[in-house]
């Protein structure tokens, strides 16, 4: 009997096609809703919006996009320890279909129910489908990075389509028509994943050795380890105290999240100390440092759906050569559109660098991505200067900024996904991928906070500050690049030796 897992399409497993289209439709629904969210919240009640202030809308945007990715951690635990990645993706897809469907209905309570379902759905699906891509390839398979690049193109194809279609429908025909269209896209993705399951046999399955009884240590083991490791107790106590302060004086939600995080952090320290060998510990350290890059990058990048989205709507001339006028939501097309246009040339550039023996490590690419991102905000500074005195900024400032942001994203995002699968301990693969997406979520919240600060400091100061920080941070990482590469213990060289 033919093993369908071994069937190839353009030299890659057919299962990659299934995961490609599942993620494409999931991102179609997510980015379609994301592009409309802030505009919907600030729109007048008479027009079907909520009539919120810009600060309120950006605050919710930051919290929502953060929670979407932070839920990747429990989503990873669900997969690694209970049901496997494939079932977790199925569960997540079902929640997303339901959430986007509810989003098409009017009402504030319905809105909160919808975004809760979407947060839970993305948390179960996002990290686990990326882990499944890694499982399609054997250790050291040189096609793995290319496979992730193809997968990443699916993400941006979905985003591009939703920006043009959902963005237009939502702003022209009504917000809830746009939200409903996003839900239909997710339904297509769920059906496609179910029909393509035959190409994913053995991928994303919970191994017998990973059963609940064997995979989860006895609670007494964790308690004993905590007693043996004073550092864990100190960390839990200090972080929990911070959470208590935040709970009382700042935000109930963030206070509870910090207190819960303190326990996970303490357990994580114990896992690091008792369950990992020297090489795994060093690689985890490098991963955690790379996560700082991810936070910095997405804190800047996610201005696209927040402050830059509002700036485009309110202070930008959106006329294209006088022929027609774009909606603000449609400007979200430029990022995924540029990715589809420049994805192959950027990948070719890094291949050329590798052939010439130049620096092309994942860490260097991620640092480069941060610096190019910063240069994009130089153009946003130009837009604010042109728009001073009540003028409208040229749309080409925004387009140019999206172009540089896209090149930066192409340097960082695809390789960071592959980087996690290479360096993460096998036993904690989905959890580390979930942690990666949680850091993406934290970057989203940072983006929301930075966007909110524009009401106090002004767009010029915020855009300039983001640009300077991104460039300086990237340069700092390049300075320490050699030391960080040593800690990977040649993880990136395995493919070259195979």
TrEMBL record:
Segments passing through the bilayer: 31-52, 58-79, 88-105, 111-129, 150-169, 175-195, 231-248, 254-272, 284-301, 333-352, 372-389, 395-419, 431-450, 462-481
Keyword Protein transport applies: yes
SUPFAM superfamilies named among the record's database cross-references: MFS general substrate transporter (SSF103473)
Cellular location(s): Cell membrane
Cellular component GO terms held in the UniProt record: plasma membrane
GO molecular function: peptide transmembrane transporter activity
Annotated keywords: Cell membrane, Membrane, Peptide transport, Protein transport, Transmembrane, Transmembrane helix, Transport
Main location: membrane
InterPro entries: Dipep/tripep_permease (IPR005279), MFS_dom (IPR020846), MFS_trans_sf (IPR036259), MFS_Transporters (IPR050171), POT_fam (IPR000109), PTR2_symporter_CS (IPR018456)
Domain Major facilitator superfamily (MFS) profile residues, every copy: 15-485
GO biological process: oligopeptide transport
Signal peptide: none
Keyword Chloroplast attached: no
Membrane topology: Multi-pass membrane protein
Pfam families: PTR2 (PF00854)
Highest taxon above the source species: Bacteria
Name recorded for this polypeptide: Proton-dependent oligopeptide transporter, POT family
Organism encoding this protein: Reichenbachiella agariperforans
């Amino acid at each position: 009997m033919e093993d369908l897992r071994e069937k190839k399409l353009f030299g890659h497993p057919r299962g990659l096609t299934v995961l490609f289209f599942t993620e494409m439709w999931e991102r179609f629904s997510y980015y379609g809703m994301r592009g409309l969210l802030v505009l919907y919240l600030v729109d007048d009640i008479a027009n079907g919006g909520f009539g919120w202030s810009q600060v309120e809308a950006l605050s919710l945007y930051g919290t929502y996009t953060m929670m979407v990715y932070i839920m990747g951690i429990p989503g990873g635990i669900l997969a690694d320890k209970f049901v496997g990645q494939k079932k977790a993706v199925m569960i997540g897809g079902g929640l997303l279909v339901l959430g986007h469907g509810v989003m098409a209905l009017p009402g504030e309570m319905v809105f909160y129910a919808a975004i809760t379902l979407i947060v839970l759905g993305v948390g179960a699906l996002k990290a686990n489908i990326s882990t499944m891509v890694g499982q399609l390839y054997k250790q050291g398979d040189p096609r793995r990075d290319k496979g992730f690049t193809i997968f990443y193109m699916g993400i941006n194809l979905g985003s591009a389509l939703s920006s043009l279609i959902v963005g237009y429908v939502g702003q022209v025909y009504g917000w809830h028509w746009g939200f409903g269209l996003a839900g239909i896209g997710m339904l297509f993705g769920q059906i496609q994943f179910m029909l393509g399951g035959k190409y994913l046999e053995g991928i994303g399955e919970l191994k017998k050795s990973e059963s609940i009884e064997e995979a989860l240590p006895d609670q007494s083991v964790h308690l004993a380890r905590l007693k043996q490791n004073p550092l864990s107790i100190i960390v839990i106590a200090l972080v929990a105290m911070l959470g208590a302060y935040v709970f009382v004086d700042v935000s109930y939600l963030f206070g509870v999240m910090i207190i819960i995080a303190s326990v996970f952090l303490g357990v994580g320290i114990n896992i690091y100390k008792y369950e990992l060998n020297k090489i795994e510990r060093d690689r985890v350290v490098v991963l955690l440092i790379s996560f700082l890059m991810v936070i910095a990058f997405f804190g800047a990048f996610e201005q696209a759906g927040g402050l830059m989205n509002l700036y485009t709507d309110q202070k930008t001339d959106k006329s294209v050569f006088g022929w027609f006028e774009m909606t603000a939501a449609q400007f979200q097309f430029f990022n995924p559109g540029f990715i589809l246009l420049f994805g192959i040339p950027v990948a070719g550039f890094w291949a050329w660098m590798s052939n010439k023996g130049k620096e092309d490590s994942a860490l260097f690419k991620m640092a480069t991505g941060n610096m190019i991102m910063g240069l994009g905000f130089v153009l946003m500074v130009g837009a604010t200067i042109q728009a001073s005195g009540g003028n409208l900024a040229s749309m080409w400032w925004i387009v140019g900024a999206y172009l540089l942001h896209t090149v930066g994203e192409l340097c960082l995002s695809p390789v960071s996904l592959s980087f996690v699968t290479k360096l993460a301990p096998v036993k904690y693969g989905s959890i580390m991928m979930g942690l990666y997406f949680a850091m993406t979520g934290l970057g989203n919240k940072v983006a929301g906070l930075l966007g909110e600060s524009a009401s106090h400091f002004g767009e010029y100061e915020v855009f300039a500050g983001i640009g300077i920080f991104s460039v300086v941070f990237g340069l700092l990482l390049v300075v320490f690049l050699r030391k960080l590469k040593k800690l990977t213990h040649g993880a990136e060289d395995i493919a070259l030796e195979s």
